[in-house]
Amino acid sequence: MMVPRVVVDANIFISYLLVANDSSGTIVQTFESISSGRYRLVRSDRLIAEIRKSVEHKPTLRARISDEDLEVLISLIEEVSIPSYRDPDAEVLHLLRDRKDNYLLEMAYDTDADYIVSGDRDLLDIRDQLERPRILTAREFLELFEQMPT
């Protein structure tokens, strides 16, 4: 059986950095399920750049997330994921109101991903328009993960 591929939005990774000490939380459990090996995480340079930019340029995040924690997370993402090589500037999908998030769909199509996990309303609003990838919240993904055979 092929290991399902999953694209995770930067907002999920940032939320993980904010609540990493709460092992019972949905975000932490979602991240742990993705890094367990039962799923194959997809990454791109643009995703990594968005995580960095969000943390480094938003004072509220900057105050709560250390450089070390950010670098550990990025190293972990790079270690457990497969790359999407699609040119981030060659945007061909225009499905989202916020065009800067179209790259997540591009990553999913480029790598034939099965899921996108996000808390972004624009992505969640179009999920009924797409057969694949399935777009799920962190909680929905975690519930799906718990139902899957090991």
Report on the architecture of this protein.
- This protein is α/β, with parallel strands linked by helices and 150 residues long.
- The protein has one domain (5-145): 5'-nuclease (Rossmann fold, 3-Layer(aba) Sandwich).
- It contains 8 helices and 5 strands, in the order E-H-H-E-H-H-H-E-H-E-H-E-H.
- The protein has helices at 10-19, 26-34, 45-57, 59-64, 67-80, 102-111, 121-125, 138-147, and strands spanning 5-8, 40-43, 81-83, 115-117, 134-136.
- The protein has a 5-stranded parallel β-sheet.
- Helix 1 packs across helix 3 (45-57) and helix 2 (26-34) crosses helix 8.
- The longest helix has 14 residues, at 67-80.
- The radius of gyration is 15 Å and the shape is globular.
- The N and C termini lie close together (11 Å).
- The mean pLDDT is 83.
Descriptive keywords:
150 residues, alpha/beta, Rossmann fold, 8 helices
CATH class: Alpha Beta
Amount of beta strand: 5-15%
Q: What would the principal axes of the Cα set say about the shape?
A: globular
Number of strands: 5
What count of helical segments does DSSP give?
8
> Helical content, roughly?
40-55%
Straight-line distance between termini: 11 Å
Class derived from helix and strand content? alpha/beta
Largest sheet: 5 strands, parallel
Order of helices and strands: EHHEHHHEHEHEH
For the record, the CATH architecture stands as 3-Layer(aba) Sandwich
